[in-house]
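Reply to dn_fold:

You asked what the input looked like. This is it:
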Amino acid sequence: MKLPTPRWWYVRENVPAPVTRALLKPLSWIWAWATARRIAKAVPVDPGVPVICVGNLTAGGVGKTPVVRELLRRLRARGIEAQGLSRGYGGTLPGPLLVHPESYSAAEVGDEPLMMAADAPIWIARDRAAGAKAAAGHGAQVLVMDDGHQNPSLKKALSLVVVDGETRNGEWPLGDGSVFPAGPLREPLKVGLARADAVVLMMPDDLETPDPDLLAVFAGKPVLVARVKPAAAPPSGPQMGFAGIGKPWKVERALKAAGCDLKDFAGFPDHAAYDERTLKILAAQAEAHDAGLVTTEKDWARLPPAWRDRVTAWPVRCVFEDEAALDALLAPLLKA
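and this is what came back:
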């Protein structure tokens, strides 16, 4: 059973649930120790092509996959055979295999690889080194790895970490600094930042400037400000929205900010599977509001085929504010 992301993870001070956090602290110490040990013992494999890792310092919901899609788009637009590499989280197939959208389902290869495969060649592999070698053997000149900042199996030419820039209403993307499961961090902040070459600060489209206190956390690291922007207008008329991502409430905010007439919204755990019963409940709620159903492209990839005509997938894309700064980070890789 998948559990929703705790909202209290993303509170900086006076964090609620003190008893729960105290009980989870020993587990967070074990998690951090195990992660550090795994990284320290690993001998990264060089697949023979540059690997750009797009990872997280925290649990999901920061906009990592849109960054991967944009990097693939930019590289391929320059004539570079850039291919994506994913673990295929949520899928049953171990790989390595090249994802063909017409041949596989989200249950087999994961929702994110299935979604991205419409844009560029995407490989899934639980063994990232094996997946990278397979991609290199099929013509990849650059690999863009979706997630993997804490995965030491591959030699990385560029490591980017994506951080949520939302700091309004008491939210803080790094929480109180606690490691999972007592907080959102995958490892201690300083440790994770030390291995990063740059930070991609994913700003909400309706928030003009980053919080200076948050920028100060990344002092000494290049910070690229990016935004997830609508690639199309939300569907017209009343809508019932739903999403199963790391931070589903961000989809609700984004739909409203884009002008969607959102009558209700249902949030689900990340990568949640939508069964017939759940979808019928959502459809009934939509009918009660005389509304349509709208969700993310990632969620739409997990819908049973019979439901896809009944739900609108709202597309978004990542836009970097300073494209020249991004190009400067990529330039050494492309020359090599």
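The two ends are 45 Å apart (CA to CA).
Hope that clears it up.
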